[in-house]
Amino acid sequence: MVDRTRTRLLEFLASRGEEPIPNQFELGLPPPPALAVSDSRSVSVVLPLTKEQVLNGNALLRVIVNAASHRGRANRIYVAVPKLYAASLDGGVLQENGIGLIVYDAKRVFESIPARDVILRAETEDQSSAELKSEVAELRSRVESLEGALLSASKEIRELKDSVKELKRGPSRGRAREGRPEISVVAEVPHKADRSGLPSFLRSNPWVEVLSTRGEEG
Prior knowledge:
The chain is built from eight helices and six strands, in the order H-E-E-E-H-H-E-H-H-E-E-H-H-H. The protein is α/β, with parallel strands linked by helices. The chain has two domains: 2-118, Trna Endonuclease, Chain: A, domain 1, CATH 3.40.1350; 120-167. Strand 2 (35-38) and strand 3 form a beta hairpin.
């Protein structure tokens, strides 16, 4: 009878994609008759209860305490009982402790109370590691963006400095030119007297030029 119940429970768990875990006791999971199964992402432990364990309050309490002790190694913990005795269990106590209930009879096996899905420490560490890697990648991206902005700003600052230098050079040259007096040079062309109205014998006389110049100076 026990083997038949175990087989039916394994078939029900297999229908949900959960397969038996070999050497479950070596992994810190409860030994048979407890069932330990996995769907490659999570681990479930099913503790089949006897009639005495269901009807004896102290025995049931020990089962619950024992089940809770495996919480760090299993994502979900169930107790399995025949349908005939399921009504004798306090479902509220099971739910408070996150323990699910699987019920079976001669015709079928079903989950009566869902087990609380607990994230194991290793999964939490993996999740934290993934979040940390994501944050590091984001920070690295921000740093690269800031480096690009700094390079662009440095280039603009150099260009501004060059422009300021050019502006400083330009006005100084202008002020230097403004401070110097401008000297204009006018070339004087010697004035030649008009000799066209003179008699021919005076036109070639050099004294005529001399006398005309002295007349202008006077």
